[in-house]
Write a structure and sequence with these properties.
heterodimer; A: mainly alpha; two-stranded antiparallel ribbon; B: alpha/beta; Rossmann fold; 10 helices; globular
């Protein structure tokens, strides 16, 4: 009895300390930079060696990078997951692929950055561009989208597939008209998590697509763009000794975006659990 | 039997090493209710699932012999077109997580019906045939998962009827339902047997006796007896059948 109480208190103290630290850290960074976020900050180009003005091009660039990444990783990832879950037989090879995919998800982002530099920027000749950076982020988010989609598809009851096949549907019709729609909500949640992960990635875009400083937004996929995380990196590298208000604002904004994305995920997850309980 | 739908000849089914059905030979009458009964593991569900080739999905499954549907060999034909003619309703109601309307138009749509008016008509006809129309006609756009268990099962029957099959296979369709819902389904089966051949697997012998014209008794993979329900219940010819019947009744 006594030992139970001690263990319970110890665990509680450890977990609440940890949660408290995280909340305090994120809260501090967000609140600290909040004063620097105003309309000009969001809509103006940087001025005076990035000590003035705003971060408009970094916001636009981030949207471009993420859009290219998703355009690549959503279709490829979903098709790969449909193949793994609906078509391939349960063999040792399939399990090997799934394991490899999970390992891929754990590879440091700087490695993806160098991979993208070598493949997209140099071999394919995309140079430092929205396309090269977006594809690098896309490759990086691919294993996550595959494993999440695969899990979502596997969670669809077998009886739906049976009912569809018994009506004379073939496997493709069953996969795309019954199984995928039935897991759509979970797949979408996975995509939001993937966005949350790649939106703050610095190294992949730093090597492949990020501009240090631009005076106009990119007009095509072969031009470089600024991105929020690389902007933060550049600001802290240029002014290592004193934190500029623009840096604080950028960090705060990036954190707000990520926190909002993950809150969205939490809300969706809650709804899904409720739906399952009915 | 003057009007026959299935002619089954020397059918053997294996799951890996397991011999699940042994030399089954019989003729199943058209537009009648045939109930398949027997103790657990006797092969009755396997038998049902051979008829629309749902077992093809199991990797270790093998079969020999022949099953002809209205004269055409089913074991070698395209499984997709076979399943269009031989519909199936499962043990647990399994409507798609879509609207009621989408549930009963999915089948016709994958078979190429595009006209909206036509799809509406099919939906109405199928739901009426499944005795569900009056209960759902004002909420066709609602999610099918909001229906009660019994309504869901009738929706599954409507869904199977939407592609106008010849045969309806029912795999213990009432085992997950309460007595009133069960009663409704039994009444429905009787009505449907005027237009469709119905083959029903059931654990509930009383139910089999109530609704069936013919009775098939399986025992450890063997078709022991197949005759009119009346003949089997009054005068079974195999001692194993009478044991089974007595065991249930006593």
């Amino acid at each position: 009895m006594k030992i139970d109480a001690i263990v319970k208190i110890t665990f509680a103290v450890v977990s609440y300390t940890l949660i408290g630290l995280i909340v305090a850290l994120i809260g501090f960074l967000i609140v600290n930079g909040l004063d620097n976020i105003d309309l000009e900050f969001l809509t103006a180009f940087p001025r005076n060696s990035m000590t003035g003005g705003g971060i408009w091009p970094a916001l636009v660039g981030t949207v471009y990078f993420v859009a290219v990444a998703l355009l690549f990783s959503i279709p490829v990832g979903i098709l790969a997951a449909v193949y793994l879950s609906e078509y391939s037989k349960d063999t040792a090879f399939k399990r090997l692929i799934l394991t490899a995919n999970n390992i891929l998800a754990g590879i440091p982002s700087v490695v993806f950055g160098l991979f993208g530099l070598s493949l997209f920027s140099i071999t394919f000749g995309f140079g430092t561009s929205v396309l090269a950076g977006g594809l690098t982020l896309g490759i990086m988010s691919l294993p996550y989208i595959i494993s999440n989609t695969h899990e979502s598809l596997t969670a669809v009851p077998y009886s739906y597939r049976e009912a569809s096949l018994a009506l004379g549907a073939n496997r493709a019709e069953t996969s795309f008209r019954i199984v995928l729609p039935a897991s759509f909500s979970r797949i979408l949640t996975g995509v939001i998590i993937a966005i949350g992960r790649i939106i703050g990635e610095t190294a992949p875009v730093l090597f492949t697509g990020a501009a240090f400083y631009i005076t106009r937004n990119p007009t095509g996929p072969f031009e470089p763009a600024m991105a929020l995380p690389t902007h933060i990196f550049v600001l802290s590298a240029v002014y290592p000794d004193n934190v500029t208000p623009k840096l604080e604002g950028s960090i705060s904004l990036l954190l707000i975006i990520v926190v909002v994305l993950f809150l969205l995920v939490a809300i969706r997850r809650r709804k899904e659990t409720k739906k399952l309980e009915v | 039997m003057e009007d026959t739908i299935f002619v089954i000849d020397e059918l053997n089914v294996f799951y890996g090493e397991k011999h699940a059905l042994k030399d089954v030979t019989c003729e199943i009458p058209r537009r009648k209710v045939t109930a398949v009964v027997g103790p657990s593991g006797c092969g009755k569900s396997t038998f049902l699932r051979v008829l629309n080739r749902m077992n093809d999905l199991i990797p270790t499954y093998r079969h020999t012999g022949s099953i002809k549907l209205l004269g055409k060999e089913t074991l070698t034909m395209d499984a997709v077109s076979l399943r269009k003619q031989v519909g199936m309703v499962f043990q647990k109601p399994n409507p798609f997580p879509k609207t009621i309307q989408d549930n009963v138009t999915y089948g016709p749509r994958i078979h190429g019906v595009k006209n909206r008016q036509r799809l509406k008509e099919i939906a109405e006809r199928s739901l009426k045939q499944a005795a569900l129309w009056d209960e759902v006609k004002d909420e066709l756009k609602k999610n099918a998962l909001n229906l009660s268990g019994g309504q869901q099962q009738r929706l599954c029957i409507a869904r199977a009827l939407s592609v106008e099959p010849e045969v309806l296979l029912l795999d213990e369709p009432t085992s997950a339902l309460d007595p009133i819902a069960t009663q409704k389904i039994e009444k429905l089966i009787e009505e449907l047997s005027e237009r469709y051949t119905i083959i029903i697997v059931t654990h509930n012998l009383q139910q089999a006796l109530r609704i069936s014209d013919y009775l098939m008794f399986f025992y450890v993979g063997e078709l022991v007896e197949f005759d009119t329900t009346e003949k089997i219940t009054t005068n079974p010819s195999d001692p194993r059948t009478s044991d089974y019947l007595r065991g249930i009744f006593s």
